[in-house]
Amino acid sequence: MTAILARRRAVLGLVPVALIVALVAGSCTYQTRDLRVSLPTTAQSSFIYDADGRLITAFRGEQHRRNLETIEEVPRILQDAVVAIEDERFWQHQGVDLRALLRAARSNISADGVLQGGSTITQQYVGRAFLDRTEITASRKISEIALALQLERAYSKEFILLQYLNTVNFGEGAYGVLTAAREYFDKDLDELTLAEAALLAGLIQAPSARNPYENRPSAIQRREAVLERMLANDWISEREFRQARTEPLQLAPRVATLEEEYQYGYFVEEVRQWILADPRFGATPDERVRLLFEGGLHIHTTLRPATQHAAESALTTILPWEGGPSAAIVVIRNDTGHVEAMVGGRDFFGDSASARFNLATQGGRQAGSGFKPFVLAAALEQGIQMSALYPAPSKIELPIPGLEETWEVSNFSATGGGGLMTLREALVRSINTVFAQLMEDVTPEAGVAMAQRLGVASPLQPVLAAVLGSEDVTVLDMAAAYSTFARRGIYIPPTMVTRVTRLDGTVLYEHEPNSTRVLNSRIADEMTDVMTEVVDAGTGGRAALEGRQVAGKTGTAENFVDAGFTGYTPQYTTAVWVGFPDAQIPMEPPTTERDVTGGSYPAEIFQLVMAAVHEGLRAESFSASVPTTTTTQYPQVVEVPSVIDLPLEEAQDAIEEAYLDVRLSEVVRDDVEPGTVVNQIPRATELASGGSAVIIEVAVEPPEPDLAELEAVELPEETDGGPNAQDGEELEAEQLEAEGGGGQPGGDGQSDSGGTDEAGGGQ
C-alpha cells in the first residue's frame, strides 16, 4: 500500500514539472515557431491510384472542406454546447487549464507518467494541427502545452474556437461543424435546434463510439450530458433544458459525405470501406479514419480505366432508360485475381436514395440458375458422371427434409416432357427439375460447401432450393467463384489494392498473391467444357465473342426479379446482375419491354464488356484435356419469333424462316378461331439452336361424338316402365368420360430447344 501511494505521489509530482518544462519550451524551443493558422499543416490527404499509377482522387479530411470565415457564422447555442462539454473554462484560461490537467493526472495514475486528457480546446487544436497524432507520450503533451500557450498569445479566443470548429472530427467522415450539420441532420448551422447542437458537441470526444447511427442510446446520453453542462453554466434556461432533453432524435438518411465528384465512385468507395474495416490500418475505427483522411497514404489499386469504362458504357448502352432496371458488373483478371472494374449501379453520385449502395458487393441478390454449376461440380466430385441420366419432367415435387410439405419445382417455359436427360444437357438447357433431383443426391450441404470453396463469400443456407439460386450472393461472389473454374480449380482471392504506403515510403500493406487448389483440374475442365456449350448452343448465346471461347451460365430468379450472367474466357471473368436496386420488382411487361432473363440484358452487357476487354489480346483456348462427351453438332444460335395469335400456316413460315423446326400440339379451344396458335415453347425472343424445335399449340374445335361407339354401348334391359331418355343421356356422358372424350389433348411434349432460360424456384 505504501508503495502504491508513493507511486501516485511520484506521478502527481510530474504535473508541475511538466508545466515548468512546457513554459520553458514555450519561451525557448517554440519561440520562433511559425504558428500562422489557416489550415492544419501536418495532416495530409491520401491519394488513390489506378493500376497504371494515374491518380484517381484524394481522400480528403480536414484539408478539403468549406471553412467558416467568422465565428459569427456559428450559432451561439453550438458554440456554447462545444465549450460546455469540451472546455467549459475556455473563455477564462490562457490556453492551458491547470485544474483540468490535475483532474486528468488523478484519473490516469496508472499511466506510468504518461499524461493524458485534460486538454483544452486550444490544446486539442494545436495537437491536431502541428503535432504527430499517433504519438501519445509525455513529451508530446509538453509540446502541446507550449504550443497552446504560444497560440493564445498570438490569436484571439474567437479565432481559435473558429479554427477548432472548422477542423474537429464528428465521425462519418464529417470534419467541421458545417459538414457535420449536413451529414447528421441535413441542415445548415442556423437551422439546428438546441438538442441537435448538443448532440453534435457530444460526438467530439468519441465520434465512433457515440455514432447516433450505430449507438443511438449512447449518443442521446451524451447529448443530455452536454445539456446539463450548459444548464450548469447558465447558458440555457431550465425550460430550454427540459424541452431539448425530450426532443426526439431525427437523423438524416445515412449517406457518406462526399464533397466532390470523381471517377469510378463504386470502386473507390469499396477501397475506402476496406481500409476503414481493416485493423492493419489502426486498432480502432477512429484511428483508421485519421490515417485514411489525414495520414498522407498512397493507395495503389487494380483498377484498369479501359476496363472500367467498358463496364460503365455497357450498362448505359443496354439499359439506357432512367427509372428502369440497373446493373452491377465485376471484371476479374484470371491469372492475378485483380478486380479491374466494378460497377455498383448507374451513378454513384446520383440523386436517388440507393445511388451509393454498391449492388456489386452489398446486400446480395438471387443468382437463379447461376448456382447450378456449383452443384454439378459437387456431383462430379462425388463420382456422378456428366452423362448420368435423370428424369426431366416439366414439374416435380420433392420432399423437404424435416418438413411434411413438399417442394414443387417447374421448368421455365414448361420445358422437359418426362423423358430422361443427361446432366450435361440439363445444364445447357437449364432444366430445374433435373437439378432439384441432383441437389437431393449431392445433398444441400455439399452443394453449398462447393460454392463457398470456389469463392462465394456470402453466407449460404444448405437448403434444396439453393441449387436454383434461392440464397443471396453478390456479383463479386459470382465473379470470384467462376474465375476458379477458369483457373482449372485454383482459387485466388479477388483483390482491389496492391500496395499502401506513407508519404515517406513506409509500406503499410503489400498484396501477397496466394492461390489454393480447391477443385480437381479434370472436374474444372469438364465444367468449363459444358459451360462453353451453354454459350454456343444454350441459354447464353448472346454472350458469345467472335473468335473466342467463352464459358458461362445464365440465371433468372423467380418472377424475373433478378437476372444475371457470369462467364469467362481463359483470360478474364465477368459477372453481371440486372434488376431494380430498391426492391425486387418483376422485370416483365409492362414494367420492362420484355421478360428479362439471364440470357437477355445480362448476357448482352457481358458481351459488350468482354469484347472491349479482349480487344488486342491473343485469342486463347481452354484446356484441351476434356474428353468429348457429345457428338452433337449444333447450328448457329437464333432468336425465337413470336407466333402466338397467328394462323398456323403463317406461324410455320415464321418459325422455318428463323431456321427452326415446328412441332404441333393441338388444344381444344372454343374461344378462338380454329387453326390459331395459342401458345409456344420456347417463348418469343428467347435463343435456340438453329434446327431445334419450337412447340406450338394450335386451337381446334371440340370433337363430334362418335356414333359408332354410341351404338356399341349396351343398354340395360327395359323395365315395365320402358326406356328412360334421361337415363340414356346420362349413360352416354358416363361412357364418353370413361373413354376420355371431352378431355383436353396434352401439349406436354418435350422440346429440343436449347434456348430456354429459367426461373429459380424457392423452397
Question: Descriptors for this entry?
Answer:
763 residues; alpha+beta; Penicillin binding protein transpeptidase fold; five-stranded mixed β-sheet; five-stranded antiparallel β-sheet; disordered C terminus
Summarize the structure.
The chain is of the alpha+beta class and about 775 residues long.
Describe this structure in words.
The protein is an alpha+beta fold. It has a domain at 2-42 and 66-245: Penicillin binding protein transpeptidase fold (Orthogonal Bundle). Strand 8 and strand 9 (406-410) form a beta hairpin. Helix 1 packs across helix 5, helix 2 packs across helix 9 and helix 14 crosses helix 16. It is elongated, with a radius of gyration of 36 Å.
